[in-house]
Structures are given as structure tokens and as C-alpha cells.
Amino acid sequence: MKTESIAFLVAGMLFGVIVGWIIGTQQAGRASARSQPAAQEQADAGGGQTRQPPVLDQARVQALENIIRSDPKNAEARVQLGNAYFDAERYPDAITWYEDALKVDPKNVDASTDLGISYYYSNQADRALQQFDYSLKLDPKHTKTLLNQGIVRAFGKKDLSGATASWQKLIEVAPDSPEAQAAKRALDTMKSAHPGGTGTTPSGG
Predict the structure, then answer these.
(1) How sure is the predictor about 205, in pLDDT bands with cuts at 50, 70 and 90?
(2) Selected residue with higher pLDDT from 116 and 197
(3) Per-residue model confidence as pLDDT tens digits over 155-189
(4) Which domain holds residue 84?
(5) What angle do CA 67, 56, 129 make, to 5 degrees?
(6) What is the CA radius of gyration of the chain?
(7) Of 11, 120, 145, 178, which residue is 20 to 30 A from 159 by alpha carbon distance?
(8) CATH of the domain at 91
(9) Do 143 and 177 form a contact (C-beta atoms < 8 A)?
(10) What distance in Å separates the CA atoms of residue 93 and residue 181, rounded to the nearest whole number?
């Protein structure tokens, strides 16, 4: 791991709540969102507790697998299986199903972005960014992709300049979206963490 500057660490701590909301709400159409696992792990570590991952909904998995067996071209069922494994924090399995969904429906931008997020949770920041690039080729204004691209650039690559570019583009293309509001808060936090500067230049590593 590269050495991080104090300023970046401060920014990271201030970003905690925002980032928990951002990646926790990536699934389009989901009734409820989870907090970012990394943020939760930090909170649990602070309390001296070991957090247990959510339990996989086996009944849901079985039902979706039955749908796929009867309808092998059903991309949505594969996406939902990816979601089930993502919710259980079983990211390698989520990756398998999101990748499978994209083989059936290569233009599914939500599945592509969910796949990128799963790569990020699996400590594959470069693959995550590559997948976000693919998502943005499908939809250059996809708000969740731009928001998460900024997060992975900031936290996965320590690239505050790149993160700023992603978030500024998001604000430009969808200024009234919830994702843009989160991006604005993130940018304000970076500026506060870098007094006397713009907060757009990586500070560490």
C-alpha cells in the first residue's frame, strides 16, 4: 500500500458517510440500500466488534436459478442473482453473475456498473475503472457510474484529481440528481481538507 498523506487521510474520514451512501445505493430499482461494507467495518473495528456479513437469501437464489434453467437467455435473473450475492458480500459470486448477465445483455449499463463496484470490493481497482469506462461508453451520463468512478479513483487509486474530474462531470450532466448532490458534498470536503488549494491534486503516493 502506498503511503498516504495526512490530508488525504482526513479527507477519507470525512468522506465516510458520503461514500457509505454512494456505493450502498448502486443497485437500480432496489427497495433498500446497504451501507458501504468498508465504512461499516471501520465502525465495527472502532467498537472492538467483529461484524458478520449478511446471510445469503438461499430461497431467492434457488428461485432465480430455476428461472435461468427454464429461460437461459434471461439476463435480468442473472443480474438479480448478482444482487443477491452482492447483498451477502460474496463479491466473487456477484462478479460471476454480473459477468454472465453482460454476456447475455452486453448493453446493460446497470449490470456493468454493479460489476465494476464488485471488482472494487474485491481489491481490483483497475478492473473496476475499466468496467466503469465500458459503462460510460454505453451511457456517458450514467450518474451512478460517474459517482462510483470518482470514489474508486479517490480511494482505490489515491487520484484526487481524477476523482474531481468524475464528480465535476457528474454535476455538469445531471446537476439535480441525488448523485450530483453527493458529488458536491465530496468536492466540498476535499476543499476543506486541502486549505489553500483546490483539492484536485493527489496528495499521497
Answers:
(1) very low
(2) 116
(3) 899 898 999 999 999 999 999 999 999 999 889 88
(4) 6-26+33-47+54-193
(5) 85
(6) 17
(7) 178
(8) 1.25.40.10
(9) yes
(10) 32
Cα gap 78→64, rounded to integer Å = 8
pLDDT, the chain, mean = 79
Do the beta carbons of residue 91 and residue 115 sit within 8 Å? no
198 part of a folded domain: no
Q: Which grid coordinates belong to 194?
A: 486541502
Cell numbers 481489491: residue: 123
In a domain? residue 119: yes
**pLDDT at position 203:** 30
d(CA 13, CA 17): 8
Q: Look at residue 157 and tell me if it is in a domain.
A: yes
Size of the chain, expressed as the number of residues it contains: 205
Q: What is the pTM of this model?
A: 0.76
pLDDT value, residue 10: 37
DSSP assignments along the chain, one per residue: -----HHHHHHHHHHHHHHHHHHHT-STT-SS-PPPHHHHHHHHHHTT-PPPPPPP-HHHHHHHHHHHHH-TT-HHHHHHHHHHHHHTT-HHHHHHHHHHHHHH-TT-HHHHHHHHHHHHHTT-HHHHHHHHHHHHHH-TT-HHHHHHHHHIIIIIS--HHHHHHHHHHHHHH-TTSHHHHHHHHHHHHHHHHSTTS-S-S----
Q: What is the number of other CB atoms lying within 10 angstroms of the CB of residue 177?
A: 17
Q: How many domains, the chain?
A: 1
Return the amino acid letter for 190. M
- Looking at per-residue pLDDT, the higher value among 175 and 12 belongs to 175
Sign of the Cα torsion 104, 108, 114, 115 reads positive
